[in-house]
Every structure is written in structure tokens, then in C-alpha cells.
Design a protein that fits this description.
The protein has 95 residues and is of the alpha+beta class. It has a single domain (4-94), classed as Deoxyribonuclease I, Chain A. Helix content is 14%, strand content 29%. The chain is built from one helix and six strands; from the N terminus they run E-H-E-E-E-E-E. The chain has one helix at residues 15-27; strands at 4-8, 32-36, 54-59, 68-73, 83-85, 92-94. The radius of gyration is 12 Å and the shape is globular. The protein starts with a strand and ends with a strand.
Length: 95
């Protein structure tokens, strides 16, 4: 069984909040997390989720609006076939 969650995080610009979200995912042994409204700029996504040990797929626009991320734990048997994201931060699709 895979544990997955989808979550409107209402912004992760605050480092304390980002750590809190990742700690929650760890504590509840979430393996796939689909996060909306991350409010990350394209430059701010480079380190998010790295400590969580994940495959990370982002679609970001600005630090003031929208943004989505799909986090997949490395322990999940997953082979990337295709990754699509828009430049407006509204959509990321992983197959």
C-alpha cells in the first residue's frame, strides 16, 4: 500500500513552514505528496524536499501566487516515463 496525500499548503516561502510540512509527511510516512499553492519562484525550488529524499517535480510561477509540486519518496518503485509542466505554475503531470 502506498500512502499519498494532496494538500493546499497556502505558501511555503517561510522556511519554518516548509520544514513543518516535510516533517508532517515524514511523521505520517507519506510516500507521494501532491502540494498546491506552494508560492515558490522557479529559483526557490532547488532545495525543497531534498532532505525528504524524494524525486521532485515542480511547476512554479512566482513567490506570490500558485505553484505545484509532486514529491515521490525514493523507496517507491517508480520509473519516469514522461514529465510535463506548464510555465504558469498551475500543472505538473508525471507518468
Amino acid at each position: 500500500m502506498i500512502r499519498a496525500v494532496t494538500w493546499n499548503v497556502r505558501g511555503l516561502g517561510n522556511p519554518h513552514k516548509a520544514r513543518h510540512v516535510l516533517a508532517y509527511l515524514d511523521r505520517h510516512q507519506i510516500e507521494i505528496a501532491l502540494l498546491q499553492e506552494t508560492h515558490y519562484s522557479p529559483m526557490g525550488t532547488s532545495s525543497f524536499g531534498r532532505k525528504w529524499g524524494t524525486l521532485r517535480f515542480f511547476s512554479s510561477y512566482s513567490m506570490y501566487s500558485i505553484g505545484v509540486v509532486a514529491l515521490i519518496k525514493r523507496s517507491v518503485h517508480f520509473m519516469l516515463v514522461k514529465h510535463i509542466s506548464d510555465f504558469l505554475g498551475s500543472m505538473v503531470a508525471v507518468a
